[in-house]
Design goal:
alpha+beta
Length: about 200
């Protein structure tokens, strides 16, 4: 017995000993999401209230009119405007006018409102027409030339000369005027009084 040894554990110090960690607790079950209540904040927007029908007796009679493209005024009084067909002859009409001295008019050249429907990309367009500009003196000179040319074509002297040429050509085609008719055929040109009284 004297040779036997015993392993005797010292008594535990309960004061310094930490209590065992508690078992891991299960995560709490989340509460079901509650549906929001119906309030004015989450209601769909209400449609706008329809206005009351206007009183027909108080309505002013006024026609709906198109944009007036015939009374555009230039900011510079030394400039004349001209409406050109921008699609005629596949655009060659505008090129011909440019060669004669015309330029494309812009909003800086015209007294026009910014919201005018004819104002497109800085140019004034009305359907197939585009507004062009030219020096007023040159434009009036062209109009004067056209008038004088028209007057010359319808003047008495011009008509007499034209009739003489046409008669001469016709007689040459038949071998000339026979001798017996000479002095009996002449060019007739009416007097202005005859024309006005007819």
């Amino acid at each position: 017995m004297a040779n036997e040894t015993f392993n005797v554990k010292p008594p535990l110090d309960t004061a310094s000993q930490k209590p065992p960690a508690p078992a891991a607790q299960a995560a709490p079950t989340p509460a079901p999401a509650t549906q929001p209540g119906i309030t004015s904040a989450n209601l769909p927007p209400q449609p706008a209230q329809a206005k009351a029908a206007p009183d027909v007796e108080n309505i002013v009679a006024r026609p709906l009119v198109d944009a007036d493209f015939t009374k555009l005024k230039p900011k510079n009084h030394n400039v004349a405007f001209y409406w050109a067909n921008r699609v005629a002859d596949r655009g060659h009409r505008v090129e011909d006018l440019r060669a004669r001295g015309f330029e494309i008019a812009t909003e800086q050249d015209v007294v026009i409102n910014k919201d005018n429907i004819m104002l497109k990309s800085g140019q004034i367009v009305r359907g197939d027409l585009i507004l062009m500009k030219i020096d007023r003196v040159k434009y009036l000179g062209q109009l004067k030339y056209n008038r004088e040319s028209a007057d010359a074509r319808v003047s008495r002297a011009s008509n007499t000369a034209r009739g003489r040429d046409e008669l001469g050509n016709a007689l040459r085609e038949v071998g000339g005027l026979p001798q017996r008719y000479r002095g009996k055929i002449a060019i007739y040109s009416p007097n202005p009084d005859d024309v006005s009284n007819s």
